């Protein structure tokens, strides 16, 4: 009888240990890594098309699921500080106050530059003038009634394009008159395509990789050439002009990771800055932070 009890006890311990071991093994397999798991990434709405392409390729390559949340810049920062997500894509690095906020929690933000973007000015195709001087835009933003600009159209009052231009003009807020704002870059393109005399302000990514909602409107707009401050030449927001540094409304794009661990956010940041991610940036029409290499195969014989 004692032998039977002892045998049952040993069997129970063995089975229990096996169950616990399997459970622990399963939990390890489900654990997020730099190339596996789930993560939510906040992204500036002005560069949404590019990041959608990056995520599609990343998910098809690795066992990962990325949820993309596109918002205006101010909304992104608010969500980021509330820990809605530990990863954000912005057209600027964190400022001193934002960086110190995370350092209070022993988290050092990891910032990776992966592309150079451009803010584009667009007008209705019926407007004959396809040139715009940045000094006239600044004059308009400062409330000068003599400015040649009749009106500006923005995607969102809290967007990165608004912040960029107000900083450029050294004003705290937009004029109350002749400034229009919507909810997305798509709506800006649609409005300008249907209304003459207005200048729309959009992320160039939406013009280079248009959604099905705005493709038909692109034939009714002009992308304007821009003259920089104290310059005498006009330049279009092309990849070549971004590379040469001649387009005056260029801005860098950053992925900022405050997860505090080596999670999927770090893996995606490495992907963006790596060979494949940089090729996707190149194909999008933006400027990669590191130009992808080209392999040339030389054959002695031609079949």
From TrEMBL:
PANTHER family: PERIPLASMIC PHOSPHATE BINDING COMPONENT OF PHOSPHATE ABC TRANSPORTER, PHOSPHATE-BINDING PROTEIN PSTS. This is Phosphate ABC transporter substrate-binding protein. Coiled coil: none annotated. Residues 36-274 form the PBP domain. InterPro entries: PBP_domain, Phosphate_ABC_transporter. PROSITE patterns: PROKAR_LIPOPROTEIN (PS51257). It comes from the Bacteria. Keywords: Signal.
